[in-house]
Amino acid sequence: MKILQRIFRFLLKSLLWFFGVTIGLVIVYKFVMVPITPLMLIRLVEQAKDPQKEMRLYKDWVSLKKITKHAPQAVVAAEDQKFLDHNGFDFEAMEKAWENNKKGKRLKGASTISQQTAKNVFLWPGRTLVRKGLEAYFTFLIELIWGKERIMEVYLNVIEMGEGIYGIEAAAQANFKKPAEKLSKSEAALIAAVLPNPRRWTPARPTPYIIGRKEWIMRQMNNLNPVGMGS
Fold first, then answer.
1. For 90-147, what is each residue's pLDDT tens digit?
2. Residues 6+ apart with CB under 8 A from 25
3. Does the pTM of the predicted model rise above 0.85?
4. Beta pairing partners, 207
5. DSSP letter at 38?
6. Where are the alpha helices (DSSP H) in 32-128?
7. Are 185 and 218 in contact (CB under 8 A)?
């Protein structure tokens, strides 16, 4: 019985520490910029192991007020058109992705911007059940504690947008030699167009596929209600 009691106490303390640390970190990041993410560290290790790659980590945090309104509109059009309506999860998209996967079709991601933000800020890449469970947990927390505007601000500042390039400001400077607040609608759509694989494609040298995707994103931007963020 004593052994069981010790195990129970240990598990209880571990759970309390887990909830305390994770909830505390989410609260801190509601007000403080995210200094670095697990993916950034992983990419740095990958670069260090590859002699053909240089060590690159370009990021420059900017507030949502310093980001053109076209940027949130473009990523919503490209990645998550129900962003302002859902509570972190697009169950309809998840069901479609599950059905397509069962039919053997090309798997299309169903992650919302909230889920992508939670994954990028707090977790590592992967598809294990533990990692997906933690992603759902952090998604719930940031939706509850941060709200949509902060989620978008963090997303636009930490998302991978090229080889060693993170965030809209670094992407704008690297590809168009201008700050994020000066990006045109077309430039913002180009940056959003490469997000499925930003290390393969670049907005500065778009392929015919990326140009076509950019045009599709711009049409979606015209059809969507204003996101109501940015300048």
1. 888 777 766 666 666 555 567 999 999 999 999 998 889 999 999 999 999 999 999 9
2. 122
3. yes
4. none
5. H
6. 38-49, 70-79, 91-102, 113-122
7. yes
State the amino acid at position 72 in one-letter form.
P
Amino acid type, 55: M
| Residues 25/37, Cβ–Cβ less than 8 Å | no
Q: Could you give the CA distance from residue 26 to residue 18 in angstroms, rounded to a whole number?
A: 12
Q: What's the Cα-to-Cα distance from 228 to each of 1, 69, 149, 169, 224, rounded to whole Å? A: 59, 8, 9, 19, 11
126's tokens: 């992967």
What is the distance between the alpha carbons of residues 115 and 117, in angstroms, rounded to a whole number?
A: 5
Compute the half-sphere exposure of residue 58: CA atoms within 13 Å on the CB side of its CA.
Answer: 15
Q: Is 1 buried (19+), middle (13-18) or exposed (0-12) by CB count in 10 A?
A: exposed
Q: How confident is the model at residue 167 (pLDDT cuts 50, 70, 90)?
A: very high
